[in-house]
Amino acid sequence: MITILVVLKIICGLVSTNDEASCPESILSAVYLESCPRTVDEWREAGNRKNCKQIAHSCKSFEYHCVINAWKNGTVEVCAPSQLIIGKVCAEFNFGGNRIQRNDNTKCQKCPEVYNSSDAYRYPECYDYVKSTEKINKSQSTKQSIDVSSDSYTTRYVSISSHENVSFPVETNLSVVIGLSITAVIVLIFLITLLVFLCIGRCRQQTEQNQQTQGCSRVVQSSKSYEESNMIAEV
User: Which residues cross the membrane (predicted)?
Assistant: First the structure.
């Protein structure tokens, strides 16, 4: 008797067309979550919060779901028509088709041959696919970062001769910058020293010229005083 009921459920599920499964309002309610509810209480609490039944829609039904996405790299909370998931696989929300459907790339050991997508919380191993994918992505990202760092700091070598295996490191950009900086500082110090000496020499010349001018003025004044004294004596 149970087998007959299962077969009938499968037939009813297969009779459903893609148009019936697709729901344009579903994608508007779709939200990515860090994790899905895994117990009945958590599922009911999340469903009450989402309140799918109060959202206007044109679908055959509009029930709370929390399933993986088609790429297995995220969990999606969405209101959508429930579907029969057949073949011991996980349920997914397909953004392209706006519907809940089976994910053929996710084998579910504890899933029954047929179950309702709105009962996805009963099979938490499906959510573990997301964790596995995240670990793989993180390891790949870390490896790429290490490769980029290695390429950035690896010392380059130039062969001395095509017939020899001897090689020597090429001077890096950092060494060139340091060398140019030191050279610039030395040149700047030299120019400042030269400028100081020129200023000192010019000041000395001006001082000597001033002294000479003052000496000439004194001679002129002395001669004038002498002439005045002679003129007074003659008078």
Answer: 174-200
Which of these, 130, 120, 104, 97, lies nearest to 30 by C-alpha position?
97
- pTM more than 0.70: no
Distance CA 98, CA 107 (A): 22
Alpha helices by DSSP H, listed for the chain, are 2-15, 18-21, 26-29, 40-50, 125-153, 173-234
Q: Is 51 left (phi over 0), alpha (psi -120 to 50) or beta?
A: left
Three-state secondary-structure class, residue 102? strand
> What is the residue whose two structure tokens read 């893609």?
18
Please state the domain extents for the chain. Answer: 2-134, 171-234
Instruction: Extract the tokens encoding 122.
Output: 């009963």
Question: Coil, strand or helix: which one is 220?
Answer: helix
Digit-coded pLDDT (tens) for 96-150: 999 999 999 999 999 999 999 999 999 999 999 997 665 555 544 444 443 444 4
CA-wise closest residue to 78 among 19, 106, 120: 120
> For residues 104 and 72, what is the distance between their CA atoms, to the nearest angstrom?
11
